[in-house]
C-alpha cells in the first residue's frame, strides 16, 4: 500500500481550499494519504482556519503557516514539511484545483508502468464566466491534455506527483527563491531534475479541475500570461545556458517572432486561430526581451479567485 503526501500551497482562497479538501475526502484509493496545507498568509490565516474548523476528516491533516511570501518560498516550506513524513510519493495541487475520485490511483498506475520520477496530469477548466472564443484557446484558460506515457519535460506543478527522491536528492532550496513572485520556479526545478537524470511522464487519466475566475477568463489576462511565461522562461534560460552561442540562438528565435508575428497577424486576420497564436508568441517574445534586459514580471503579486 503506497504512502502519498498531498502538498497544497494556499493564499487567501478559503472557498477554493474548502472545495479541494472536500474532493480529496472522496478519493477512491487504497493508498495511505496525508494532506499538508501551507498557508502563505501570516496575517489573515484563512487557509489555516479552514483546516482548523474540520473537526473530522478522512485523512491525517497537517496545516501550518509559511510566513515568507512567494510561491517559491511556500513550495520550499511544503517540501521541508513533506519530507518529515514517510510518504513514498509527494503530490502538488494548487488551491484552486480539485481532483476526480480516480485521480491518485491513475497517477500510481502510470508511475508503476513508466517508472517515471515525476508525472503531470490532465487539467480541465471550470469557469466563473465563459471566456471568449479566442481567449478560450490560450494557455491558462484552455484545458491541458496529453498522451499517457513518457515525456521529455513537465510544464508545471499544478497537478504533479513526484517520487520522494525528487526532493530528497535535490540540493535545498528545491525551488529558487529568485522566482518568488514571478513564477517559473517550477520550470527551474524541473530543469534541475532533468539534469539529474530524472524521468518524466504524462498521465491523462489523472484529472483535476481548475477554477478560472472572471478576472482570468479574458484575452487581456491570457496575453499578460503569455508575457509572464516568456519572462520566466527567459530567466530559467539565462540561469542554465550561459554560452554565447546559446544566447545568440535564442536571440535569433526571438527576433524571428518579433519580425514575423505582426505580419502573420495582419495577413491571417484578427479572428483566426492562427493569428491568435502569432499574437501570443509576440507577447511571449516581449516577456523574454524584458527578462533579457533584467526586467521581471511579478504575476503572483495578484490573487485571483476566492
Descriptive overview:
α7 packs across α9 (273-292) and α8 runs antiparallel to α9. The chain has helices at 14-25, 46-52, 71-82, 103-114, 164-168, 185-195, 219-240, 244-268, 273-292; strands at residues 3-10, 32-39, 61-65, 89-93, 97-99, 118-127, 149-151, 159-163, 200-212. The chain is globular. It folds into 2 domains: 3-212, Spore Coat Polysaccharide Biosynthesis Protein SpsA, Chain A; 219-301. By secondary structure, it is an alpha/beta fold. It is 41% helix and 20% strand. Strands 1, 2, 3, 4, 5, 6, 7, 8 and 9 form a 9-stranded mixed sheet that branches. It contains 9 helices and 9 strands. The mean pLDDT is 87.
* CATH superfamily label of the largest domain: Spore Coat Polysaccharide Biosynthesis Protein SpsA, Chain A
SSE pattern = EHEHEHEEHEEEHHEHHH
Q: How many independent structural domains?
A: 2
**What is the terminal-to-terminal distance?**
35 Å
Number of strands: 9
Tally of individual helices: 9
CATH topology (level 3) name of the largest domain: Spore Coat Polysaccharide Biosynthesis Protein SpsA, Chain A
Query: Which whole number gives the mean pLDDT?
Result: 87
Most strands sheet: 9 strands, mixed
Which terms would index this structure?
single chain; 306 residues; alpha/beta; Spore Coat Polysaccharide Biosynthesis Protein SpsA, Chain A; 2 domains; 9-stranded mixed beta sheet; 41% helix; globular
Summarize, please.
With 306 residues, this protein is an alpha/beta fold.
Give the secondary structure arrangement, pairings included.
Blueprint: E1 3-10, H1 14-25, E2 32-39, H2 46-52, E3 61-65, H3 71-82, E4 89-93, E5 97-99, H4 103-114, E6 118-127, E7 149-151, E8 159-163, H5 164-168, H6 185-195, E9 200-212, H7 219-240, H8 244-268, H9 273-292
Parallel strand pairs: 1-2, 1-4, 2-3, 6-9
Antiparallel strand pairs: 4-8, 5-9, 6-8, 7-9
Helix pairs in contact: 7-9, 8-9
Amino acid at each position: 500500500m503506497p504512502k502519498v503526501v498531498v502538498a497544497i500551497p494556499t493564499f487567501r482562497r478559503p472557498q477554493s481550499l474548502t472545495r479541494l479538501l472536500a474532493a480529496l475526502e472522496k478519493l477512491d484509493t487504497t493508498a495511505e494519504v496525508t494532506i499538508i496545507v501551507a498557508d502563505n498568509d501570516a496575517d489573515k490565516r484563512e487557509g489555516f482556519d479552514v483546516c482548523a474548523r474540520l473537526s473530522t476528516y478522512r485523512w491525517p491533516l497537517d496545516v501550518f503557516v509559511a510566513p515568507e511570501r512567494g510561491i517559491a518560498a511556500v513550495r520550499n516550506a511544503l517540501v521541508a514539511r513533506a519530507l518529515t513524513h514517510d510518504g513514498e510519493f509527494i503530490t502538488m495541487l494548487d488551491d484552486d484545483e480539485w481532483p476526480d475520485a480516480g485521480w491518485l490511483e491513475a497517477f500510481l498506475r502510470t508511475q508503476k508502468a513508466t517508472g517515471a520520477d515525476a508525472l503531470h496530469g490532465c487539467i480541465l477548466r471550470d469557469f466563473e464566466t465563459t471566456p471568449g472564443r479566442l481567449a478560450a484557446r490560450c494557455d491558462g484558460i484552455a484545458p491541458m491534455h496529453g498522451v499517457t506515457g513518457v515525456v521529455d519535460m513537465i510544464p508545471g506543478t499544478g497537478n504533479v506527483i513526484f517520487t520522494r527522491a525528487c526532493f530528497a536528492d535535490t540540493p535545498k532550496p528545491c525551488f529558487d527563491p529568485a522566482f518568488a513572485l514571478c513564477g517559473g520556479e517550477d520550470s527551474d526545478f524541473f530543469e534541475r531534475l532533468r539534469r539529474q537524470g530524472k524521468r518524466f511522464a504524462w498521465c491523462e487519466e489523472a484529472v483535476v479541475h481548475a477554477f478560472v475566475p472572471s478576472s482570468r477568463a479574458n484575452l487581456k489576462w491570457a496575453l499578460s500570461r503569455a508575457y509572464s511565461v516568456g519572462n520566466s522562461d527567459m530567466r530559467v534560460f539565462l540561469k542554465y545556458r550561459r554560452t554565447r552561442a546559446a544566447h545568440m540562438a535564442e536571440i535569433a528565435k526571438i527576433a524571428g517572432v518579433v519580425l514575423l508575428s505582426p505580419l502573420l497577424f495582419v495577413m491571417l486576420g484578427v479572428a483566426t486561430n492562427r493569428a491568435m497564436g502569432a499574437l501570443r508568441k509576440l507577447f511571449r517574445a516581449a516577456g523574454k526581451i524584458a527578462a533579457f534586459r533584467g526586467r521581471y514580471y511579478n504575476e503572483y503579486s495578484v490573487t485571483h479567485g476566492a
